[in-house]
UniProtKB/TrEMBL annotation:
It is found in: Membrane. The chain crosses the membrane at residues 138-157, 169-189, 201-221, 233-254, 365-386, 392-413, 425-442, 454-475. GO terms for cellular component: membrane. Keywords: Membrane, Transmembrane, Transmembrane helix, Transport. It is a multi-pass membrane protein. GO terms for molecular function: transmembrane transporter activity. InterPro entries: MFS, MFS_dom, MFS_trans_sf. It comes from Colletotrichum tabaci. Gene3D superfamilies: MFS general substrate transporter like domains (1.20.1250.20). Signal peptide: none annotated. Pfam families: MFS_1. This is MFS transporter. Residues 1-56 are annotated as: Disordered. Residues 42-56 have a biased composition (Basic and acidic residues).
Amino acid sequence: MAYHTTPPSEKHSAGKPLEVSQPGPVDTHAGTDPQSNSINLTEKEDSEHTNSTDRLVKSPEEIRLVRKLDWRLMPILWVMYWFNYLDRNAITVARLDGLEKDLNLTATQYQTSVSILFVGYILGQIPSNMLITRLRPSVYMAGFMALWAIASTLTAVVKDYKTLMITRFFLGVTEAPFYGGALYILAMFYTKTEIATRVSILFTGNICATAFAGLIAIGVFEMSGVGGLAGWRWLFIIQGILTFFISVASAWILPDEPSNTRWLSEDERRLATARMDADTTALQTNTSTLTGLFDALKDVRLWVLIFMQHLHLAASGYKNFFPSIVQTLGFSRNVTLALTCPPYLISGGFCILCAYSSGRLNERVWHITVCKAVAVFGFVLACATLNTGARYFAMCTFASGVYACNSLIIGWVSSTCGQTKEKKSISIGIVTCVSTLAAVYTPYLWPSSDEPRYVLAMGTSAGFSIAAALLAWLLRFMLVRENKRLAQRADHDGTRYVY
């Protein structure tokens, strides 16, 4: 169906009438008259309404717009996420350089210092995503990045368990706005068929930060003794300073919303706004933040997504202990740090592949199911053998299966609960907030006394993965029914929920 790039207020009064073409393969280079700046939406239907979303057949103008968004928006968000996770997880590699010994921590105190970050993170999530719709996202996110840079740097001067807990809590509060804010920005600029791939690309910032954290640490730890400081203290100082410089740059590059992005032309702004309006199922007029909150809380589908993402993150609790898990293979500190890299690089490739396939096919449930099956196989293998090669293969396997699901679930949130920008933003905030509760209790599933097989942690992670897949099938059932209901409405515009 053709849709002209008129402002939202003129959406139903300008341009040509809607044209629905016959189902067929998508040609991303096909389009309409270049002078019309229109978007063609080709619907693909089957008897059960599977893959139930509009197919985009992009005009040359839209192809250029998406390419411009990819080159301007994605790199800065990716770098910000890199440092977000690098700063957060520096404590996991610092442990291998004597952090526990220097601060006189017990094993339980270390686990608590890991989990306390997520208490601060959770407290900041929902308020942050409510505020971001009323403030400039560019300034808001850059400001909080500067604050978490300061918190990360201050970790270098902690002297005991108490001061470590304070800095970790403050780091969690200041890091909280980034992930939900980044997802909100992506959801404002990318359509249902595009967003899963972009979220997965963003998520590789997380993956690569974790992958290269060990390699970075190998070099930084050689500074041990410089200025009378331990190597792990230099790690927090260097990463914190670099994070601060990135925060300054991000304030100039990040956009606020499609209608006022300074590095888009006027025509591109209209096109960016129009295509997002055309892509939203059951689009409604933007409303107040409080109404958006109530709308989100009343949506049963959101609660299914919340518990799905919660179980998914519970299955990924190994991330806070991965260097320690790899250390059980019996290698030296530097070899252990180097071995933490390949599993995450493999995971990054698998994550992008799954997200691209999901977006191309407009399908979520089977992709999530397959990824969770891969994760379950890895978890079971990891605790079923003591063979070094098999265990390392298992680490690569469960990491790949877990990481690949994240972008699929988060992309599903924005396409299912995005009727208004307020509801979309708050839904993302609620999902990330409640799901992050898993990071508070899962560290206690990984006691050092369970080395090397971690049977309890691996077994529960496999169970969490299976439960998350079952919830994906429940949501599919709900969306099939909703699509049938929408199809019977005379005033419906033809858009449908994807599953």
